[in-house]
Amino acid sequence: MPVVKPVFNAVSTAPVASGGEVTTTVTPTVTRYFATLTAGMISETDTTIPAASFVDDADGPVTDLPTLTGSDYFNVYINGVMQQASLSTLSTASLVLDTTDLFAGIPVQLEIGSFGDVTSAITTPQTISAPEITILT
After folding, report:
1. Which residues contact 109 (CB under 8 A, 6 or more apart)?
2. What is the value of pTM for the model shown?
3. What is the rounded distance in angstroms from the CA atom of residue 47 to the CA atom of residue 100?
4. How many whole angstroms separate alpha carbon 99 and alpha carbon 78?
5. Angle CA(77)–CA(81)–CA(87) in degrees, nearest 5?
6. Which of 124, 116, 126 is nearest to 23 (CA)?
7. How far is CA 50 from CA 9, 18, 25, 36, in A?
8. d(CA 67, CA 103)
9. Tens digit of pLDDT for each residue in 14-30?
10. What is the DSSP letter of 133?
11. What is the residue extent of each domain of the chain?
């Protein structure tokens, strides 16, 4: 007895997504540190300010400067004037300024901004239609 296989031709539509909303909240954190240069910080090639020479916004002592992550940045102000980023190097132990044209008593401010506190949530889910399948005979 022969086997009869039914053959169907069909067309379908792709599902369609519509609507939906994602809310992303970015909460930046800015911390500032303050130091006054001393003659011992200024060498023949650069100026190195140890972390322990800084105080924070609350005038509290600093033992280590923060480790920067990919979403962080820092600005250096010497005598109230922002400096080019390429002229300074920040580590947890110190801030190194690529200049020797400074003298004792000049104030230095270090500002660190972080965008690490980011959250996202689906506040309105998407509506996704079911595909339509039409069988042709």
Report:
1. 32, 33, 34, 76, 77, 80
2. 0.70
3. 6
4. 11
5. 55
6. 124
7. 77, 56, 35, 11
8. 28
9. 888 888 898 999 989 99
10. E
11. 26-121
- SS3 call for 85: helix
Contact 24, 118 (CB under 8 A): yes
CA distance 14 to 100: 67
CA atoms within 13 A on the CB side of 108: 27
Q: Give the Cα separation of 110 and 74 in Å (integer).
A: 7
**DSSP 8-state secondary structure symbol assigned to residue 94:** E
Tens digit of each residue's pLDDT (9 = 90 or more) over 60-97:
999 999 999 888 999 999 999 999 999 999 999 999 99
SS (H, E, C) 6-73: CCCEEEECCCCEECCEEEEEECCEEEEEEEECCHHHECCCCEEEEHHHCEECCCCECCCCCCCCCCEE
Tokens standing for residue 48: 């190195």
2 DSSP 8-state letter: -
